[in-house]
């Protein structure tokens, strides 16, 4: 889409002392923006149109938002993209069209902040058997080894490689009681983190009492038979390693 003539002429105004009007018009034509030198001079000699005056007004308003002040600071509205900025100006009583805001922001390269997309490391299988919810979103414990929560994620090593890390946290103490790393996602390293936590508690002289709940939101189907085979119930596990 061709920019407005007023914007093209403003572009030429900024650079004509260095390059000249005719060379700039030729360069613009190469890039698909057609304007004749006589059109530029006619525009300069004519009185500013209502659209040009309105564009100037909106540009000054937006510059006060997107350009940093003397201290290098900008208002919170500088995070807005064109749609939110248009809505903001309308709330301020400025009857500007959305396309006008988009055009001026695009010309001056004013952009809002784009939210980062969260990476999902665990995707539940909707067809898998659902374990009973033993915690009921009450993540509190009155003593150690009553409730463990677990998950796994990936972390970057100093060498630049990424590895998966499974960890088990005691809700009462808020500390990691077991963890394990692996180059790939598989049931074994998740199970190892659980067993490490149980063995560590035994070595510390605190064998697990019956009824420790192990809650997790991952649902590796292949984890269930092996863990449940040791007397542990469900993926949201009711753990009894002392049995």
From TrEMBL:
One Gene Ontology term of the molecular function aspect: nucleic acid binding
Q: Where is the Integrase catalytic domain?
A: 143-217
Family annotation (Pfam families):
HTH_21, rve
One GO BP: DNA integration
Sorted alphabetically, which InterPro entries does this protein's record hold? HTH-like_dom (IPR025948), Integrase_cat-core (IPR001584), RNaseH-like_sf (IPR012337), RNaseH_sf (IPR036397), Transposase_IS3/IS150/IS904 (IPR050900)
Boundaries of every HTH-like domain copy? 79-115
Q: Which Gene3D superfamilies match?
A: Ribonuclease H-like superfamily/Ribonuclease H
| Top-level taxonomic group | Bacteria
Q: Which residues form the signal peptide?
A: none
Q: What does the protein in this record do?
A: Involved in the transposition of the insertion sequence.
Question: What PANTHER family would the database entry show?
Answer: TRANSPOSASE INSF FOR INSERTION SEQUENCE IS3B-RELATED, TRANSPOSASE INSO FOR INSERTION SEQUENCE ELEMENT IS911B-RELATED
What protein name does the entry list? Integrase core domain protein
Q: Which organism is it from?
A: Mycobacterium riyadhense
